[in-house]
Structure formats: structure tokens, C-alpha cells
Design brief:
With 114 residues, this protein is of the alpha+beta class. It has one domain: Winged helix-like DNA-binding domain superfamily/Winged helix DNA-binding domain (Arc Repressor Mutant, subunit A). Helix content is 49%, strand content 12%. The chain is built from five helices and three strands, in the order ααβααββα. A three-stranded antiparallel β-sheet has the order 1-3-2. The longest helix is centred in the first third of the chain and has 13 residues. It is elongated, with a radius of gyration of 16 Å. The N terminus is likely disordered. It comes from Shimia aestuarii. Keywords: DNA-binding, Transcription, Transcription regulation.
């Protein structure tokens, strides 16, 4: 999700990003990279931790990278993968929650999403 405005993403961008997360394996890969932090993991370590390896992992990383959720960079002989999803996840949650209870007759005091 490559978009600069945190408060207003389009339906199209949100749908494509949610689609990229629409696989248990991709979601597992992303969660693992989020846990690893900014240093990321080598592709081998990522595969070991998630149980997703080889061409399947390559395929999932390509989809996540196209959605702007992860990055890959070559460091020597290794490929290091890292999550860059923090802003994207914030955008997605804001997209879903910004109009929370807008059509309700009573304000939703239990779900203040600011």
C-alpha cells in the first residue's frame, strides 16, 4: 500500500492490501516479520520460522512487497526481508473504523476510534 495520506485511502487501495493479506501463509509471514522488527530476517530464517519455504515463500513475498507491506534487500549472499507495514496497517484500521457507528442512532462510547 503505497499511499502518503494516513487518513484517507481509497477503497481500491484498501481492497488490494486486504487481498494481499488474504492468505494464512502470507499473514503468517507478515506477522513473523513484524515480530522480527526493523532488522528483518534472512529468507532462510523466515522460511524456518513460518514453515513456508522455496518458491511458495518467494511467491508470497512478491505479493506482500507489491502491496507495500514488506521489503527485501540483498546483503551479501543473503536476502533480508523486513516488514514495512506499520503505516499500512494503521491506514487499513483507520479505513475500517473512521466511520464507525456513523449511521447508528446512539453514539458508540465503547468504541472510540479517534
Amino acid at each position: 500500500m503505497k499511499h502518503d495520506d494516513l487518513t484517507d485511502i481509497s477503497l481500491e487501495v484498501a481492497a488490494s492490501t486486504f487481498a494481499a493479506l488474504g492468505s494464512e501463509q502470507r499473514l503468517s509471514v507478515l506477522r513473523c516479520l513484524v515480530r522480527a522488527g526493523n532488522d528483518g530476517l534472512s529468507i532462510g530464517e523466515l522460511g524456518q520460522r513460518t514453515g513456508v519455504t522455496g518458491s511458495t515463500l518467494t511467491h508470497h513475498m512478491k505479493i506482500l512487497a507489491q502491496a507495500g507491506l514488506v521489503r527485501q534487500e540483498k546483503q551479501g549472499r543473503s536476502i533480508i526481508c523486513a516488514a514495512v507495514a506499520y503505516d499500512a496497517v494503521h491506514q487499513l484500521s483507520h479505513f475500517l473504523l473512521r466511520e464507525c457507528c456513523a449511521d447508528s442512532s446512539q453514539p458508540d462510547k465503547d468504541h472510540d476510534h479517534g
